[in-house]
Description:
Elements: E1 5-9, H1 14-25, E2 29-36, H2 49-63, E3 66-71, H3 73-89, H4 96-115, E4 120-122, E5 127-132, E6 135-140, H5 157-161, E7 163-164, H6 172-181, H7 203-208, E8 216-219, E9 225-229, E10 257-263, E11 268-273, E12 281-291, E13 303-307, E14 315-318, E15 326-336, E16 343-348, E17 351-358
Parallel strand pairs: 1-2, 1-4, 2-3, 4-7, 8-11
Antiparallel strand pairs: 5-6, 6-17, 8-9, 10-11, 12-15, 12-17, 13-14, 13-16, 14-15, 16-17
Helix pairs in contact: 1-2, 1-6, 3-4
Amino acid sequence: MKGRTVVVGMSGGVDSSMAALLLKQQGWNVVGLFMKNWEDDDTDDYCSSREDLVDAVSVAERIGIEIDQVNFAAEYKDRVFSTFLSEYQAGRTPNPDVLCNAEIKFRAFLDHAMELGADMIATGHYAQVRERDGLFQLLKAEDGTKDQSYFLHRLNQSQLSRTLFPLGQLPKREVREIARREGLPVADKKDSTGICFIGERPFREFLNRYLPKEPGEMQTLDGTVVGEHIGLMYYTIGQRQGLGIGGRADGSAGDAWYVARKDLARNILHVVQGHDHPALLADRLSALDASWVSGQVPHVDWVYAAKTRYRQADTACTLPAASGSGFEVVFSEPQWAVTPGQSVVVYESKVCLGGGIIA
């Protein structure tokens, strides 16, 4: 590694800090880069970017590397946030982290790093890369509880070939232990959660600033009106909290209500009672905007595994149809609350093949 330069995306958290430290210990010439991706209302009330930059600089000083800051706010707004809003407006529930990785962290950031003369880039994601027969494979992390390959499935072969994931073989517990032992000032810093541009603020409050409320009826599947929604965009399939209704349609006590469907044409939110209501279960789905990180379209009718949300166990499935643009998935057992706009990601054992947007 001596003489080779890697630019590490440093967010001010323990994972990216450890990625930089480990690569320096391996002999790489490490340069840190802090990305600022949001600035519309960058206040300390909700956004921690100022504190995160201070932490990233402190870590860089501690491990003895250079660090710079780059502003990708314009690219983020154009490539990620605009899609986020249009998807919600269309009644779907997008995953901005997936889009941010493909468009910002491994495109804008990668391009910038190459302009700086980098040989490779690295992040603190929990995933792995290996080369097989001239193709690069995205693998799950050894720590299955932290694996982030789901969020990385839209990377392409070019991006994957120039990326290092130093934490891929380490359990999170050990990452923090090493950080403490090495005296990193962020060793015990809490992991960030949620969407970067929303921060800790209430989601509905944020969305209402950009998309107007369009109230309508909440109905059961047979058309009985049981309440009023404030706008279809504020709800997601399987949602239980925040519906403002309780009990049975006839007024008696009963199972909890869940969002089952959205009728955009009539602005109706369909709700059902009971976690295991048949309307919340699906044994197949269609996906659009396919992206095969493996570099190859999967074989039709082979048995693979897939998940329709991040915190979900893999489920055996087949792909009766698959192409470079879309695919079908048939699951071995029904999946709960399959949500249009979210990503379905396909695996062959530990290898992430790619995925698409649930239609």
